[in-house]
């Protein structure tokens, strides 16, 4: 019987030649990612693991951890489980009972095709840890406020640095730039800037916004600035050219006269005011320059006033480019993700939103949102100021522009003027139209068109009641309700300047049909509407100064994904 065959053994020479090669390969796979992760401005190793699909879960020992709710669910679609945390965008460490909209609002929309990047998810969790450590009510916050109160200069970099957003001047007095959309868009931009610069984001919450939103960050520390104990008084009086404004510091050559890297933090003021409102001028435009961001990074407290969606300008700053690409591989999802992370209606407001949806919208699969801004509330193109009051003829022309748009683009069917809608049945309607308009007469007129006449294709159309028409709601609450209801629509038609429309479209992840303003001294626009190629809001008043060329230039030609807006002359917008 032949003995079993023994496999040949490797010779010592072969062993000695193979093990160095194996060791070299192992070192490459372990040290190169580590070197990349530890490089300045690059994601950490934790982030790289997430990019490669390796899930790492962190648990915080926090009393705000969600507990099972005993309240009945008002979810509109209980038949299939949904990812209410939006792909990790939201932290689970906030109890559902304290903020129902956080867990339920996304169920009123189709699932978003835009998933947050693993790096953005990682940065948000890190920010939440920073807010726990440095937010109001913590020892580090109290220490920072004491230093701010006692120091004329910054005293060097502190462990915690802060960005405070304060609302546009003249809140509550009818100023055009003070509607809720003109606040939420700069708040989202400011939060993104805080993420990029590792600052704690605080809001100088105006009284007319009190109680509208849930706290967005887990933990006991609020996002609201405790104004009573804050050493910088009269924040509402900060203006362009104020003593501590960054533009004024440049103009008086207190900064900007030497290499940014050589500027000593100890010689900078204890705080700087950033004026990024619609009336800002060239010195303030340098906020978007790389060297000036290096200087601002050495100031512990930044106070920012803005009524603009200035996030596209952050993409123009070279030191932010890499990280923004990691956060938003598709740049036109920036507000979609930041807005859904930051803004959650309070339980009081959510009750109104959910009630309206259940009563009027839930039974329709095809929902069209139309946001109508009359000519008197449309900005004059190019100068950032309200247009002259429109005549009735201009209002009539604008309504005709809206109806021509929805019919020409097959959003709504034509009506037969000779056929009465005698068999109208709201329960059988196949399309629902939600109209958000400052003038309710325009919504009622559209309702009467489809109520009184049959459509040429036999399709039924229901124009829903305007939210808040039946009851008295505070102005900003009514606007917030309309924003979220618009975000539950499948198709959107909006004024090209409308910040209310921007918020609704961005939350929904919908590319709207935009109604451009008519040319000056004319009452109608041609074409009647254009399809947006990006769901991002428009930066209405971008800087004119090209930091890279060090002269005025076309910033819409610097980066391929920052281009001119479709319906706002001179505006900038993020594209994919």
TrEMBL record:
<dbReference type="GO" id="GO:0016757">
    <property type="term" value="F:glycosyltransferase activity"/>
</dbReference>
<feature type="region of interest" description="Disordered">
    <location>
        <begin position="62"/>
        <end position="84"/>
    </location>
</feature>
<keyword id="KW-0325">Glycoprotein</keyword>
<dbReference type="InterPro" id="IPR004938">
    <property type="entry name" value="XG_FTase"/>
</dbReference>
<dbReference type="Pfam" id="PF03254">
    <property type="entry name" value="XG_FTase"/>
</dbReference>
<comment type="function">
    <text>May be involved in cell wall biosynthesis.</text>
</comment>
<protein>
    <recommendedName>
        <fullName>Fucosyltransferase</fullName>
        <ecNumber>2.4.1.-</ecNumber>
    </recommendedName>
</protein>
<comment type="similarity">
    <text>Belongs to the glycosyltransferase 37 family.</text>
</comment>
<keyword id="KW-0328">Glycosyltransferase</keyword>
<keyword id="KW-0961">Cell wall biogenesis/degradation</keyword>
<dbReference type="GO" id="GO:0071555">
    <property type="term" value="P:cell wall organization"/>
</dbReference>
<keyword id="KW-0333">Golgi apparatus</keyword>
<dbReference type="GO" id="GO:0032580">
    <property type="term" value="C:Golgi cisterna membrane"/>
</dbReference>
<keyword id="KW-0808">Transferase</keyword>
């Amino acid at each position: 019987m032949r003995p079993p065959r023994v496999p040949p053994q490797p010779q010592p020479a072969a062993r000695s030649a193979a093990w160095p090669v194996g060791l070299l390969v192992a070192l490459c796979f372990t040290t190169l990612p580590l070197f990349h992760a530890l490089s300045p401005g690059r994601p950490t190793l934790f982030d790289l693991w997430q990019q490669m699909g390796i899930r790492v879960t962190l648990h915080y020992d926090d009393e705000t951890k969600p507990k099972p709710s005993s309240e009945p669910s008002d979810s509109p679609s209980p038949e299939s489980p949904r990812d209410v945390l939006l792909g990790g965008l939201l932290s689970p460490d906030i109890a559902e009972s304290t903020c129902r909209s956080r867990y339920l609002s996304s169920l009123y929309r189709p699932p978003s095709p835009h998933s947050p990047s693993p790096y953005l998810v990682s940065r948000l969790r890190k920010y939440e840890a920073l807010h726990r450590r440095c937010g109001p009510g913590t020892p580090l916050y109290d220490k920072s406020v004491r230093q701010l109160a006692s120091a004329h200069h910054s005293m060097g970099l502190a462990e915690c640095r802060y960005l405070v957003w304060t609302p546009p001047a003249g809140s509550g007095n009818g100023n055009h730039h003070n509607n809720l959309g003109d606040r939420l868009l700069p708040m989202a931009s400011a939060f993104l800037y805080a993420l990029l610069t590792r600052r704690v984001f605080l809001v100088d919450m105006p009284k007319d916004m009190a109680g509208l939103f849930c706290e967005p960050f887990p933990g006991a520390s609020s996002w609201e600035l405790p104004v009573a104990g804050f050493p910088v008084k009269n924040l509402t009086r900060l203006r362009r050219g104020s003593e501590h404004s960054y533009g004024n510091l440049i103009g008086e050559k207190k900064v900007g006269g030497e290499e940014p890297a050589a500027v000593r933090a100890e010689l900078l003021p204890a705080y700087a005011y950033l004026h990024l409102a619609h009336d800002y001028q060239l010195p303030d435009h340098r906020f978007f320059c790389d060297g000036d961001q290096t200087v601002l990074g050495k100031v512990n407290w930044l106070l920012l006033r803005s009524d603009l969606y200035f996030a596209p300008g952050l993409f123009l700053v070279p030191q932010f480019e890499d990280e923004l690409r990691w956060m938003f591989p598709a740049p036109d999802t920036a507000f979609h993700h930041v807005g859904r992370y930051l803004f959650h209606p309070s339980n009081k407001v959510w009750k109104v939103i959910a009630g309206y949806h259940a009563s009027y919208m839930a039974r329709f699969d095809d929902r069209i949102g139309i946001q109508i801004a009359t000519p008197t509330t449309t900005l004059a193109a190019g100068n950032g100021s309200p247009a002259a009051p429109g005549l009735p003829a201009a209002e009539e022309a604008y309504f005709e522009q809206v109806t021509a748009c929805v019919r020409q683009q097959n959003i709504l069917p034509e009506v037969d003027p000779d056929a009465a809608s005698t068999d109208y049945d709201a329960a059988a309607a196949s399309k629902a139209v939600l109209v958000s308009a400052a003038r309710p007469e325009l919504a009622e007129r559209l309702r009467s068109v489809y109520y009184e006449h049959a459509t040429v294709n036999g399709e039924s159309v229901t124009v829903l009641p305007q939210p808040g028409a039946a009851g008295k709601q505070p102005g900003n609450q009514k606007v917030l309700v309309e924003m979220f209801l618009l975000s539950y629509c499948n198709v959107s038609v909006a004024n090209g300047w409308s910040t209310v429309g921007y918020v609704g479209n961005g939350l929904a992840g919908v590319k709207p049909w935009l109604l451009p303003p008519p040319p000056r001294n004319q009452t109608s626009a041609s074409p009647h509407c254009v399809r947006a190629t990006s769901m991002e809001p428009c930066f209405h008043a971008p800087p004119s100064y090209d930091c890279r060329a060090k002269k005025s230039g076309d910033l819409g030609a610097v980066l391929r994904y920052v281009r001119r807006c479709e319906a706002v002359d001179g505006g900038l917008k993020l594209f994919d």
